[in-house]
Description:
This protein is an alpha/beta fold and 214 residues long. The chain has 9 helices and 8 strands. Strands 1-2-3-4-5-6-7-8 form an 8-stranded parallel β-barrel, surrounded by 6 helices. Strand 2, helix 2 and strand 3 form a beta-alpha-beta unit.
Amino acid sequence: MKLNKYIDHTLLKANTTVEDIKKLCAEAKEYNFYAVCVNSYYVALADSELMHTDVKIASVVGFPLGSMDTKVKVFESQQCIDQGADEIDMVINIGLLKSGYYNIVEDEIKIIKKAIGDKILKVIFENCYLTNEEKKIACKLSLNAGADFIKTSTGFGTGGATIHDIQLMKHEVGDRLKIKASGGIRDIETAQKYIDLGVSRIGTSSGVTIVTSK
């Protein structure tokens, strides 16, 4: 598979404008990226801009902290799907995972997956805040809950994707779940390393730079 088809072309900053989203979508069409990834408010706009193309729309939910009530995350997820999203990237409740409330974390993933039906659910761990053991537990919870992907980071924490984390996640889930590497991926060499380790998707705001590098 070509490198461009691994990329979720991403723009999630607080100061993102309407014109920024239109530019993101134009770039996604030009370079035939797999998807764009936007905040939930901009799903309808992205859907309009990407009409009659193969580019998918991913939206983040519970972003970036993950500590919203589950009902709020479900509502946001359903709203995104109704407005044209193909994929949901949800942030787990990091504090509850670290508190050992594993059943609640698993149930939330399960409830959101049920709410979006056959659409793709990616579960964001925010690995920079987790111990290795907590990352392994998050993998198991996501697997048990029926998620489609596990994802390293929001890009808004204290760190992004790492080789160590991708290896750990891959070891835990094998081919049973797909993996999305996200956070700090800005060049073709880094992206290729993660792909070689078995990730199925790269989340980056540097997609154009990556695919036009020689």
